[in-house]
Amino acid sequence: MDAKTAMLNRAGEIIDSYGSKRENIIAIMQDIQAEYKYLSGDVLSLIAEKLGIGVAKVYSVATFYENFSLEAKGRHIIKICDGTACHVRKSQPIYDAVYKYLGLSGKRKTSDDGFYTLETVACLGACGLAPVMTLDGEVHSKMDPDAALALLENLKKEEGAAV
Prior knowledge:
Strand content: 5-15%
Low-confidence stretches: none
Number of helices: 7
Mean pLDDT: 92
CATH superfamily of the largest domain: Glutaredoxin
Shape: elongated
CATH architecture of the largest domain: 3-Layer(aba) Sandwich
Distance between the termini: 31 Å
Number of domains: 2
Largest sheet: 4 strands, mixed
């Protein structure tokens, strides 16, 4: 069984676990995204089919809530805070350095190798430690561009990936 079929089968199980009820659409999407880190077009079509609603309605829910992602994410999620304290303490140069390091362009958030996804967040709630970034949920405080890139390079080396 290929990965796409496995994903659709698992998504179907999640939908069925909610009784295929329309009122559970957000919970269904959250559970599927928790498992796969994003909602593919095929999964959104499956949700529409199993809930008996239009694909446009499912897409409108998925795009209304900022927490849902329609783009496949990398194995490791980088979040750089751009709240007031972090911004004032220069989080933008950190973001810019990581963006360049990952070879991103335009609105792309995931590196070509699928290793990293870069996101910004409004606040991580660690203002006293600004500027802050997280890597897979682990908080790294008082960052600067060099420290951020060193962290990413170390992770790639630890996992044996080509830098």
